[in-house]
Amino acid sequence: MKKILLIPSTQTNNKEKNLINIPPSIGTGSIEIIHLNYGIRLVIADYSLNQPTILECGVSGTSFGFGFCLSGTIESHPPYFKESFFVKKGQSGFFSFPDTLGYTEIIGLERVIRISILMDLDQMSAFVMEYPDQFMSVLINISETSFRFPDMISQPMWGALDKILHCPYHGLTRKFFIEGKVMELIAYKMEQLEIENWQNPEESVLAPNEADCVCHAARLLTHDLENAPGLIELARSVGMCRSKLHHCFCKFHGISPFEYLRNHRLEAARRLLNEGKMNVTEIAYKVGYRSLSHFSKVFKQYFGCPPGKCLKNAVSLSNRRLR
């Protein structure tokens, strides 16, 4: 799989933004970083890649704030996270990553549109000064470690995000307009966190033993893709009831155990297809699918092309290299 190291260019005359253009050889689009007031940074990513690619952050620094995925499915693996997690369309998140150096993301063929709001912890604290002390205590504790709390993009958030992406203004007017929408998004996320999670902050973060069980469950799911355990068997293996495991797994990874297994099966299938040593039917069975038609359907939904075409492209590329 192709791997790209992302390093924002420092050779720019505009101190208010940086732009990373996706090289034409691997795709189209860009990642724009806009520096706003109060130390807030807005990251707007909109790109499509020609082939599944690993993007790696080549810059060290903290990343704390909110994220919104408007299109695409991304497998993310921040430093200090034992397991990777998936970010998908319609998902928002509150996160803290103490160091971004080495942060990797696996991007498929689907167009990716994401908006992130990054800020310093001190600035975040200023926004929540009027919240209960218990809220502040939880905030400070989680900010010192790698943390991600996924949620959904609400309808008001969709509206503000759309206005940022389709801002009709330019120059300073654009900056003021976008800054207003960023403040809206922060307010919507704070309200969402307060209502849905922070009224019971002791329940908002998994206990260490729960997190260990979830990580163990993820390893069991992907250890043998052809014979992966069902949810009941999986729950029994990690010492949880089925509903508890499902709840904790979704909270930790942002997706259900079924989705986690499906994504890993499809990623494994893509790797085998790229090797070109097995046919589509053999690969489908190898990664745990008993129905070839179902495998072809979900593969195309996930990667944007049928497995047969992916295999054909891999074989064609291999033949060209041998010439």
CATH topology of the largest domain: Jelly Rolls
Q: Give me the side-by-side strand order of the main sheet.
A: 2-3-4-11-6-9-12
**Overall pLDDT:** 83
Task: Supply the CATH superfamily name of the largest domain.
Answer: Jelly Rolls
Structural class: alpha+beta
CA radius of gyration: 21 Å
Number of helical regions:
11
Main sheet summary: 7 strands, antiparallel
The tally of strands reads 12
Which CATH architecture of the largest domain?
Sandwich
- The tally of domains stands at 3
Distance between the termini: 21 Å
> What is the general shape?
globular
The stretches of 5 or more residues where confidence is low (pLDDT under 50) are: 198-202
Strand content: 15-25%
Question: For this structure, what is the CATH class of the largest domain?
Answer: Mainly Beta
Helix and strand element order? EEEEEEEEEEEHHEHHHHHHHHH
Helix content: 40-55%
Task: Provide an overview of this structure.
By secondary structure, this protein is an alpha+beta fold. It has three domains: 2-200, Jelly Rolls, CATH 2.60.120.10; 206-254; 264-323, Orthogonal Bundle (Arc Repressor Mutant, subunit A), CATH 1.10.10.60. The chain has eleven helices and twelve strands. The protein has a seven-stranded antiparallel sheet. Strand 7 and strand 8 (85-88) form a beta hairpin. Mean pLDDT is 83; it is low at 198-202.
